[in-house]
Amino acid sequence: ANAENDRINRLAAIAVLGLALAYTIIAIANTLVMATSDRRHELATLRLSGATPGQVLRMIGVEACLVTGIGTLLAAAVTSVTVTGLRHSLLGLAPSVRVVIPWLPLAGIALACLAIAVLASLIPAALALRRRPAELAGVPE
Fold first, then answer.
1. Which of 21, 70, 117, 132 can bridge 64 by disulfide, Cβ–Cβ 3.0-4.6 Å?
2. How far apart are CA 75 and CA 100, in angstroms?
3. How far apart are CA 37 and CA 128, in angstroms?
4. Rounded CA gap, 109 and 116, in Å?
5. Which of 35, 49, 32 is nearest to 137 (CA)?
């Protein structure tokens, strides 16, 4: 009975976390698509100052990687503070509270967020760079 309960609880947790990850992916993609689309003037300025489309796209890709890395580090910091507080508060109830960190799923989630961030930044930038820089510079905001 305990094994069946554990299996059902694990499936429920996966379902809830899966939905949370889906909403997170939608939020990341939506935010970065809008932000990159609003940077058309900046992209035009870079192009008019001599940057090639490849250089601009590399810059956008590196920015997406940096933002994802910083976000992952901040999430890890907040989570570690929360888990440390919970662990210390549970020490009075249980003599030893073991903290288990599922590294493989966490790495998978971080890589999925990175892939979505890079794609959601590069695709709108590549579409914006298809137009001539002089046209982009004259587009009103």
1. 117
2. 17
3. 7
4. 11
5. 49
pTM more than 0.90? no
Q: Where does residue 6 rank: exposed (0-12), middle (13-18), buried (19+ CB within 10 A)?
A: exposed
The answer to whether 121 touches 60, Cβ cutoff 8 Å, is: yes
Q: Which two tokens stand for residue 24?
A: 């997170």
- DSSP summary character for residue 139: S
CA count, 13 A, side-chain hemisphere, 85: 6
Nearest-10 Cα torsion for 95, 102, 24, 89:
10
